[in-house]
């Protein structure tokens, strides 16, 4: 049985990169039945896109999202910095799929503001080449980390995150994350929003922020490279879903690969042969 969830938020999947954990994401998506799915930026990594690397499992994620929309789920694709090429299209609607740069929803009489968050990142706004180089370096670091973790698991040790170690030991990185969260929260309070939901910094979080002007709840959906997290809203409550905490149950679920394989093949045929 799939879990019914009113709203799900995922971000920073980075399809098309070596670090993307598409198989884990598919297991999660196969376990839920969402009414609304918000893709909060950096779903497809257009910065690092190359024809030589876009595995079948990455295509399956895209196909699954399209299937959700076809079955009645409202999908909102919010653009991020790694898929910023989509921003030139502005706000568009394709059936149940909406493409936009930001989204404001009224959920149980609460104003919830969704956007990716790269607007607060000065390195992206002013030195894009450096940000792209950093993205390439991060992907290589994740590749190395995967090799190291493979060896650690074989030897019976726990996995180790190099990037988390680096982030937690560099004072500038810690300060940037803190400043990001505070800036987003203060801006939400200024606009009278009750919640602000971001991605971008790969740091899953739900916390309340209070200033002299008011209070809001800051939330970040994390990523599907290291943390493997998503935000869920159901029956009046927000929760942070962590794949690792449900790994055993999710991996024991029946696979839907057969149907997905057939659908992916049909999708590939349509791409090769052109529109029907």
Automatic annotation (TrEMBL):
It comes from the Bacteria. Coiled coil: none annotated. Keywords: Cell inner membrane, Cell membrane, Manganese, Membrane, Metal-binding. InterPro entries: Calcineurin-like_PHP, LpxH-like, Metallo-depent_PP-like. Residues 7-204 form the Calcineurin-like phosphoesterase domain. CDD domains: MPP_YbbF-LpxH. This is UDP-2,3-diacylglucosamine diphosphatase. It comes from Sphingobacterium arenae.
